[in-house]
Design a protein that fits this description.
By secondary structure, the chain is mainly alpha-helical. The chain has nine helices and no strands.
Length: 158
């Protein structure tokens, strides 16, 4: 993120610089790596971080986020994993609160590839246009050690 914050100038220049410096490729690789960790993700940290990257890619312009694009198969793996966690009632309180917030951004889960994920779609529909307050389930005490996701959540309430 330091590299993203250090680039200045017109948007087109910043975008080119971030591509040249490999920032976009690095975030693509990071997201793919998180998606591969989902199977052994008992703490749900990998899904939280992967989901954040997916949402942030849509929510912020690439010259501010450092995220140009994400792999569609990795994105589908994350959403499929979320659907499974929802269906089985296995999401922890922190992930639930994060997903509620992301779901309130109506475009985050409208990809045609996600429409068969019925538990996820039901959850998203329930929380669209949600009203959010204190984020009481987020572990703010350790957000500083959780990368860009942590920095984002600290900006909200830490």
């Amino acid at each position: 993120m330091r590299v993203v914050e250090s680039v200045s100038g017109p948007i087109e220049y910043q975008t080119t610089q971030l591509a040249t410096l490999g920032v976009y490729d690095e975030y693509l690789s990071i997201h793919k790596a998180y998606s591969r960790l989902l199977i052994d993700d008992s703490s749900q940290e990998a899904v939280k971080r992967a989901l954040f990257i997916q949402w942030y890619c849509l929510a912020e312009p690439s010259f501010l986020s450092g995220i140009w694009d994400i792999d569609p198969l990795a994105e589908l793996a994350v959403c499929t994993h979320l659907d499974s966690l929802l269906r089985d009632g296995q999401m922890d309180a922190e992930l639930t609160e994060m997903l509620q917030y992301y779901a309130s951004w109506e475009y985050g889960f409208q990809c045609p590839d996600f429409q068969h994920l019925l538990a996820l779609q039901s959850f998203v529909t329930q929380w669209m246009n949600g009203d959010f307050g204190l984020f009481s389930s987020l572990r703010m005490s350790d957000m500083a050690n959780r990368g860009q996701m942590g920095r984002y959540w600290l900006s909200w309430g830490g």
